[in-house]
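User: My instructor asked us to take a sequence, write out its structure as tokens, and then describe one feature of it. I'm not sure where to start. Here is the sequence I was given:
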Amino acid sequence: MFAIGSLLGFLRQPNLQNCTLAAALAFVAVPAFAQAVSDRSCGDVVTIETHDRTTTRYAIALPKDGASTPRAALLLMVGGGGDLKMDERSCARALDGNPLVRAMPDFLAAGLVTVLVDAPSDYPGEEGLAGFRTAQAHADDLGKIIAAVRARTNGPVWIAGHSRGTISVANAAARLKGSAAPDGLVLMSAMMVGGARAWVTQTVFDPPLEDVQMPVLLLGHTDDRCVRSPASMMERITARTNGAREQVVRLNGGAEPVTAGGDACGARSPHGFFRLDAEFAAGIVRFMRGGNY
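Assistant: Let's start with the prediction itself. The structure tokens for your sequence are:
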């Protein structure tokens, strides 16, 4: 939503002089993401039973071109606590600035099925998934979603994570087998350095990465100043994985480097690949289809 000063300047434009204030407000108040999704909002909400009688919701959205051929799907695991607080339209009310959420329209436009995964019912709030991201039960929960999506789309199912979401992705890729296992994984701003609190010590190195045999794409940003995701360390991940294909990519540009006092691990920063959505989405799709980023 525009700031008040920007809004007043917007209303003074000649081509808006005949608009009412209410109409102009209605125009500028619609988020760009809401404009980009289809009439079905952010997808169809599916609720499944997961560990210990909990439930987990995910929103699955299909491209609008009407093609009936098998579709490649991409599960999206956001960072932070992972609790998206999905609304009745299956859209994220929290963590909606995450790069994977922002890029959903780009993935859909490229012909992918998107699957936005919420936190399970017993891990709500800001801390959300916390230390559960490395648990076998968490991997099994994601495996249920992968198997269900594979059956629905009759195509490959990949899984992508950003920031703390990369821990969930690495955990699933390392532990799952058969129809529950992803066909490939994408790690963006991977959590490679632990933090101070007990569960924040977790990193992508905690799961048995040696068991990862599917294609692996790692994306980092050269100006990422988040202490937990230095782009210089990404080769340490591929040194342990045994992916069928592996590529490490360092992006440039987009957001300016975060200065002192800013949120270096936030979504509107190089860590969040801010202003690079179309670029990284296109690269991910190319890699999923067998090419290079």
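For the description part of your assignment, you could build on this observation: Confidence is low (pLDDT under 50) at residues 1-40. Try explaining in your own words what that tells you about the chain.
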